[in-house]
Amino acid sequence: MLSRLAHWIERHPPLHRLALRVWRLFPARLAGFLKGVFARRWVVGAVAVMIDETVTPPEVLLVEHSYRRRGAWGLPGGSVESIPGSPTAPGGAASPDDVLEATLAREVEEELGFAIDGIELLRVDAVPFIPEEPGPYRLDFYFRCHPVAGFAPLREAAAAPRSPEISAVRMVALPTLADYDLFSPDARFLREDLPRLCPGLGG
Q1: Gap between the Cα atoms of 165 and 66, Å rounded
Q2: Has keyword Hydrolase (predicted)?
Q3: What is the value of pTM for the model shown?
Q4: What pLDDT sits at residue 135?
Q5: Which of 163, 165, 171 is CA-nearest to residue 54?
Q6: 161: CB partners within 8 A, 6+ apart
Q7: Is 2-84+96-197 CATH 3.90.79.10?
Q8: Are the CB atoms for 76 and 172 separated by under 8 Å?
Q9: Signed CA dihedral, 3, 132, 145, 41: sign only
Q10: Going by C-beta distance under 8 Å and a sequence separation of 6 or more, which residues neighbour residue 175?
Q11: Hey, which residues does 77 pair with through a beta bridge?
Q12: In whole angstroms, what is the distance from residue 30 CA to residue 13 CA?
């Protein structure tokens, strides 16, 4: 019921913007608790890691989330939609093989307005506690991907995000990540995991 209400609000932009402004006022623990009520005990996320290696130093795409007071900057992406059915009752169709990749492509299209390809899994991160949003456990799938049209059109469109959830879009040089108030799971991925997974790209 509450999940359906949240999805209904998201389909009405003026109401969605108002809800995001109100959400930003909530203390972190209350926001995390409500996220657990509206969502579920586990949130499964698909996260886009888009790095332009044609520039020196390489740059990564970051977005500023309008609903976070702390850790507002991070990587784009979103959560897998709730699967119909009940976890306590038999039945229900299996999800498609590419449910995570499809989630990632949908979220990037909705929030930023461009298509991605070359989607490749880099890391799965199970996160029990997030200071900015204490609440549901997170299972985040980090995917390396690329904008279909290349990074040049992306830079031109960066000033105009399509979703009220996104305040700003920016290509950020990896060595300057410390200048941004990063969402802690994304900060850990970019500073610790990325150098290990993609040598030469670490910030």
Answers
A1: 5
A2: yes
A3: 0.75
A4: 66
A5: 171
A6: 63, 111, 112, 113, 167, 168, 169
A7: yes
A8: no
A9: negative
A10: 57, 203
A11: 47
A12: 24
| Residue located via tokens 């610790």 | 192
Both tokens assigned to 44? 């499964």
Whether 179 contacts 60, CB under 8 Å:
no
Q: Measure Cα distances from 45 to 15, 50, 134 in Å.
A: 24, 16, 16
> Position of tokens 């059109």?
153
Can you tell me the distance from the alpha carbon of 167 to that of 148, in angstroms, rounded to the nearest whole number? 23
Can you give the residue ranges of every domain in the chain? 2-84+96-197
